[in-house]
Model the fold of this input.
Amino acid sequence: MFRARSTARERLLLTLDAVANEGNADAKPKKRIRPTPFPTTEDVSVKRVLVHAPYDVRLEDAPSPEQPLGDYEILARTEISALSPGTETRVYAGLEAERFRYRISYPSALGYNNIGRVVAVGKDVQEYRVGQRLFSRMPHQSDYIVAERASGDAGRPASTNVPMSYDVICPVPDNVPSEHAVFTHLLTLGFNALHVGHYRFGENVLVIGLGVVGLGAVSMAHLAGARVAAVGNHPARLAVARRLGADETWLNGEDDLACAQRFGGEAGIDLVIVCTDAWAALRTAIAIGRRRTRITVLAFPGVGQGPAPFDVFEPADFYNRSLSYISAGWMPSDDYPPEYQRFTVKRIYRYILAQMSAGRVDMSHILTHRLPIGRIRDAFDLVLQKDRSALGIVFDWS
Done:
């Protein structure tokens, strides 16, 4: 039913060559490929990463789409995908699988950081064109279909080509490298932590945990104009935090209270963002807070560590100091009108990519490893072995 994968690739190259040679009298004529009014998916042969059971990860064939592209749908081919070290490693290793059974079952697809290049578009697509790059939350998969906007009932997909979140996409500016743009969603988490933590102009922010998400939170807090402190477990990560805008850094356990008092001064700590699962990090956040400090949790405290070794709701802390514990796990994906919901996921994506394009956010400090997708197991080994040099890990699909 489906022709070889190379057919779509050749068609795309011929189309791009034709555009490049337009108006060039000296160029050797190329065959022009006219866009088909009803693009089909007949050229797609799909590969995907699937975890069949803990520690059993495979790159394997996946079902190809069986329906023609819908009016607003886009067929894209993955160039780069990125690892989310916490979430994906937890699935790969089966860490507390019973506890997370509400969101994880096997076999399980992995990934939600993807840069693809458009191969074909539906007849009503307006913003995207063949050859353009886009960011999406699609998994580690070679080819996929997303949509410029939802067109089904109640915002649901109009065809079986795509999952529920298929229209959460964003165009990538031409001057932003794919290996930087692929971290857009992970930066969005820090952006959201500031918003739900009610950050206000002039406040300070302290980030605990300097993996990719924590460093992204440092970058977003600096971008928002905050004085930023960063607490991590390795000098190299502290150095990256300083390059991303942290004003002060220290190793966790290095007299946290005294360091926080020095950083916060008379005002104390306004907002703490916890970006690691370690119980010790949450305990530090509680200890360094002043009265009415807000603690935004961008992690799953205690995963793989057993019960908390302290009382999270100790009255002397939680009640007497009126601390606020805030989960930063949800962001609105639907396209609500901006007067009702100013920042949706897609609007945040556009904002962050615009900041990358303007040079205000530099992901080169976070990118440490680039591997072919066939070596995804090696990436998990780096994380599980707690290699502190490993931060941003991207996979090449070329």
Q: What stands out?
A: The first strand starts at residue 46 and ends at 53. Residues 1-25, 27-39 have pLDDT under 50 and may be disordered.
